[in-house]
Write a structure and sequence with these properties.
Helices cover about 70% and strands about 0% of the residues. The chain is built from eleven helices and no strands. The radius of gyration is 19 Å and the shape is globular. The protein is an all-alpha fold.
């Protein structure tokens, strides 16, 4: 692209080591600046749990719609997914644009024996580790507060990370084509926020008008919430689990193909 450095990538790095080097570079930055991410990635989901789960939830009767669970127990696994997807949305937008246009760290990376595809792989791996770390803290605090309905919420963390990465990959592909942040606000306003409200986090999707439900089924939040609730409450059946995981895996795979192509096209020109 015009005005961007021209490099001749040397394709000598192989395996996972180059991607882990990308992760290491991001960890060096993060361990000095982690305080800037604490509020959005950890504090906000916990505030939702306290205010809605315990506050509003104290006025909500346990019904069959919530599987006989208390509202806070019903809410906690889905909030884990919502937090993962919201964090993934942020990590897949502004940092990607910064890597290409603002700080241009991706250009520095490909002057080493690291290919554009490995740069993308390292970036996605870093996002997954970030989601796992913040999610683990959320699970720990949830357990301390007594909002964990069962030990299955530990396994639910893996499903939440899968949902977050399934959303992150295609967003990275989109962000990698941008020269400015003009379209990012629309992602949060018209995709992330509606998913948070209507994808079965705060109430069952069966309460929605029938024509909206098929749209909800296309969201990673709904599939992630079904998986995390099912494994937490011990109600997850085999074939529904396969279907939910297959949707998230396909979304992740398609996003990876598109994003890797964007990174190659942009960093090899």
């Amino acid at each position: 692209m015009t005005g961007e450095p021209t490099t001749a990538p040397r394709r000598v790095g192989r395996g996972m080591r180059p991607a882990w080097l990308v992760v290491e570079s991001m960890w060096v930055w993060y361990r000095r600046n982690w305080r800037s991410t604490v509020f959005s990635s950890i504090v906000v989901p916990l505030l939702f749990l306290l205010s809605i789960g315990y506050g509003l939830g104290s006025q909500v009767r346990s019904t069959a719609a919530f599987g006989g669970m208390s509202y806070v127990d019903y809410l906690a696994p889905a909030l884990l997914v919502t937090a993962a997807v919201q964090n993934a949305a942020f990590e897949s937008t502004y940092p990607i644009l910064s890597g290409f246009k603002w700080q241009r760290v991706y250009w520095a990376m490909v002057t080493a024996p690291i290919t554009p595809g490995q740069v993308f792989g390292g970036q996605l791996l870093w996002i997954g580790l970030r989601l796992f770390g913040s999610g683990a803290i959320f699970v720990a605090v949830t357990a301390i507060l007594g909002a964990a309905a069962g030990p299955g919420i530990v396994l639910a963390l893996l499903f939440a990370v899968l949902a977050g990465m399934a959303f992150a990959a295609p967003v990275i592909a989109y962000a990698g084509t941008k020269d400015g942040d003009g379209g990012f606000a629309a992602i949060f306003r018209f995709i992330v926020m509606p998913m948070t409200i209507f994808a079965g986090v705060f109430f069952p999707v069966s309460q929605l008008p029938g024509w909206i439900e098929p749209l909800v089924w296309l969201t990673p939040v709904w599939h992630g919430a079904e998986l995390t609730r099912g494994v937490t409450f011990g109600t997850l059946s085999f074939w529904p689990a396969v279907g939910h995981m297959a949707f998230l895996a396909v979304m992740l795979a398609v996003g990876c193909v598109l994003a890797a192509r964007v990174f190659r096209r942009r960093l090899e020109t």
